[in-house]
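Could you please consider the sequence and fold appended to this message?
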Amino acid sequence: MSKILITGASGFVGTNLIPYLTERNLEIIPFSRKNRGSYDCITSEYIKIEDIDTIVHLAGKAHDLRKSVNPQEYFEINTRLTTQLFETFLKSSARTFIYISSIKAIADSTEFPLTEDILPDPLTDYGKSKLAAEQYLLSQSLLADKRIIILRPCMIHGPGNKGNLNLLYQIVRKGIPYPLAAFDNRRSFLSIENLCFAIYELIIRRDINSGVYNICDDESISTTEIIKMMSDSLGRSEKLLKIPKNLIRLIASVGDILPLPLNNERLQKMTEDYLVNNEKLKKVIQKPFPVNAVDGFKKTIESFKNIL
């Protein structure tokens, strides 16, 4: 039986994807810098010896809103490592390369649902580094028996997630009113279960061609709806404050200068509309996602109860 090499195996997506695939009788070779130290040992000979058919490249440098990361780190990890691994793939006997990029490779803000044919214009080093990796991958010639699939997920959530959603949950748990209720926004999210489902289908299905695919849950959700779900999970009424938008924007501008919890980038991330179109991927998979957006969020929220 052929095997699946997964990079970034110790990360949030990896620790959810590996058991998902294993339960479906796929043999996994997990790989992470925490365990191996370097990706340099992934050679074409290594892939041949291990009988690896598919590489799922999860490893990457996540976007840091605190701006504590040297911008070059994004390009070193998200771009250079990806090109290095793909060059190995081209020389190897593996047939499928699945790269987990990001919807931020297209745009950091949008006034309409993002599709795959929109001209990319990322503003952050994170988005630029992901786009640079995509452009390299798409510029390479493939043999007839090989394919490259690029997935652009939006914000991923699920049990074990410790990002902004968990921080928002802690605010609700402490009874602190949510101060941004004046912003009526809707966003696309992605349940980790739906992501694992899509990756599984892409691995086992040879009828899905090379290409770039956006991925998100079918339904969008507003921040206030998330607050209400979190409050319901805690058995209390939601506390929403509709502070004037101009005052909030003023505070965020001060946060760009001083170390306040809110700055303009974080405000934009929490209050903007950011919608993604997933029709291209759904058309090729031809199966419904297993989890709807609300049920996926409820699973994530319930998992936060176990995090102190």
Q: What stands out?
A: The CA atoms of residues 187 and 215 lie 13 Å apart. The radius of gyration is 20 Å. Residues 3-157+190-216+277-290 form a domain with the Rossmann fold fold (CATH 3.40.50.720).
